[in-house]
Amino acid sequence: MFKKAVKDHPGGTSKPLQSNFLRANTVIPSKPAQPQSVGVKRKIDLTNGGESTLGSLHSSVYFDENDFDDDLDLDIDEPIALNIPSATSTTYAQKPDPVTYPTIDLTSPDSPEPLSAPANKPQSDIAYPDLPPASQEQAAPPSSMQYPWSSSPPSHFQPPPKPRTLPWLKEAKEEPLQEKKSNLVTPKRSKPAEPWNKSASAIKEEQKELRREYKKSQKADGAPKQRDNGKVAKVFLSDEQLHVVEAVVDHGKSIFFTGSAGTGKSVLMREIIKKLREKFKREPDRVAVTASTGLAACNIEGVTLHSFAGIGLGKEAVPELVKKIKKNQKARNRWLRTKVLIIDEVSMVDGDLFDKLEEIARRIRNNGRAFGGIQLVVTGDFFQLPPVPEGHGREARFSFAAATWNTTIQHTILLTHVFRQKDPEFASMLNEMRLGKISPKTIDAFRKLSRPLDFHDALEATELFPTRAEVENANSQRMSRLSGEVMTFHAVDSGTIQDPQHREKLLSNCMAPMAIHLKKGAQVMLIKNMEDTLVNGSIGRVVAFMDESTFDCYKDNEGVFVAGGNDNEEDAALRARKKLKPLAHKEGGVTVTRKWPLVSFVQPDGTERHLLCQPEAWKIELPNGEVQAQRQQVPLILAWALSIHKAQGQTLHRVKVDLGRVFEKGQAYVALSRATSQAGLQVMRFEPRKVMVHPKVTEFYSNLVSITQVIQSKKKKTGGADDFEDEL
Ligand SMILES: Nc1ncnc2c1ncn2[C@@H]1O[C@H](COP(=O)(O)OP(=O)(O)OP(=O)(O)O)[C@@H](O)[C@H]1O
Ligand SMILES: [Mg+2]
């Protein structure tokens, strides 16, 4: 049975509610321009080293004007002055905003009532903001308004009829709140004038056609399949992760799951997407896979949120955006057909954009429920990359501060088990860094990591840089030191977008470059999951270039080649070719084939694996299966150096970071948290002041508790039974 990450908050009955409280959620919203007045906060287990790491902040993101998928500029060229007023940012040394932690420490085994409110408080531990009661006559404020924020119609501000708890299995008994309101907020249908209001049979017919097209495209697509290719070992999800899958797939909940770097958010999201695709296998366009940036979208074979929405840059007011979408049949259909909307790397989604999309969804779908009834599955870590400010001196709003965040997201789940760093001491150091509260002991420990790494093989640590220019410079310097022929591999691009420039722009966000120049000896990173131990992020060295049949022969006779002398792989390949020639003649002639890089990867256990890196495919795919753009390229990039933007999401065994170069919030934490161990991390110029945390993010996370804590506290209350559903 699914257990919620946090206790639901019963709604107050005497005070008016604002939209944020209409749904059970874990986050106690703050009230801008007012001091924090939350009565009781639940505390994350910050003391639990390695179990819950928090982080710091970030670099800028923006969406390109034409395709909204271009995030090349995230590999920053120039240090950018922070647009965040100093009052809102804090360094490691400063305490974040005064935060009143609960009188009961959830992490303490002695806490008598871990999740209950203090005696002098009413049942609810939420301090409800003093907003005036919403009235029917009130016009809905524009979505761009900061506060009282909501672009929702006034009905969204109505309090629930009774304290809402929404446990999964009780839900059937409860009246769906949003349903009741829908007649208040759903715009009147005017069928004849609105061709997008198609009849059910017309939509069915359209979907049949879509399915046919999708099947056709699947068959016609000869590109190597990444999904379900059986090459990569099955992931065994942890209990925490399984709870999320259950809530999303079985219970259809709108969920935000979060956690520090390395808690398996991406692994979990891939699993959820797989499961949802199985659930909707007859209607693939029901699941929309999106992410905030082009790179993140490309990593999960989706599109950017802007692209999905069909809103261009999305700067206009909602009515104009709705008009724009209605004129674009494909975009309109996407909105109408989507049942589940996935948003990855949500920390970079602007709060205003979130509100606009929520309103657009309700309007286009003629459905007054939150997000027009679309289930949202959202993930990200707000301690990593923030949304980019739009200019005009306006600070970007985090999406958790969006007016409609809490009416949309039913449950927030905090993942606490860190998979990436197995050493609890290291995980705890990163945890402190994430929180922006670094102890002298941890500062010392990080400073000790300035020594060179001690590995005795040909692989060097990958150096992470904040700017693209530094990366290109470092990689090309290393390349020029190698002798030997340069082999260039050009990508083959295709897709439904015919305009080559537009397509190229979309594909420029892929990890795979349009052309890659390699030499024997080049250090490279694998950018696709190939096998259990050969995964996205594996680092290796090019040892030869050979064609497939030579490689087969090389593979089959590796022992003979190795026994044949001390020569290198190139010579071995030569011998293999010689061996192959007569064989080929026997079969009726030699076929001239292309040579691909043969790469020797060092696996986590120190052993070597050779892989002939033949082209793989990257797709930008719409929910209906239409592949807008596809790139086929060898799955490698140069890896002596990598930008922090491109390293985001990666797991690296050998990393070198010079914090003196880091200038943006989040860069330090993102960079250091790529490493799997202290032995594999070199940190130069460690300065605690480089580690900055946004107080709003600290506040947001301080109101979350981990699912494990909730289960434990409930167990205590129920004398061991881990079922706390009846208490919710
Ligand atoms: N259930 C699991 N079992 C074993 N390993 C796991 C599991 N979940 C994740 N991992 C491993 O942990 C590492 C980090 O996972 P992942 O990249 O999904 O974390 P993340 O939360 O997305 O981190 P980031 O915030 O840095 O992107 C990866 O090497 C991944 O293979
Ligand atoms: Mg990730």
Automatic annotation (TrEMBL):
GO terms for cellular component: mitochondrion; nucleolus. GO terms for molecular function: 5'-3' DNA helicase activity; ATP binding; hydrolase activity; single-stranded DNA binding. Residues 1-10, 170-182, 203-229 have a biased composition (Basic and acidic residues). CDD domains: DEXSc_Pif1_like, SF1_C_RecD. It comes from the Eukaryota. ATP binds at G259, S260, A261, G262, T263, G264, K265, S266. It catalyses: ATP + H2O = ADP + phosphate + H(+). Its cofactor is Mg(2+). Keywords: ATP-binding, DNA damage, DNA recombination, DNA repair, DNA-binding, Helicase, Hydrolase, Isomerase, Mitochondrion, Nucleotide-binding, Nucleus. It is an enzyme of class 5 (isomerase). GO terms for biological process: DNA recombination; DNA repair; telomere maintenance. SMART domains: AAA. Its EC number is 5.6.2.3. Residues 133-155 have a biased composition (Low complexity). Residues 251-444 form the AAA+ ATPase domain. HAMAP family: PIF1 (MF_03176). Belongs to the helicase family. PIF1 subfamily. DNA-dependent ATPase and 5'-3' DNA helicase required for the maintenance of both mitochondrial and nuclear genome stability. Monomer. This is ATP-dependent DNA helicase PIF1. The gene is PIF1.
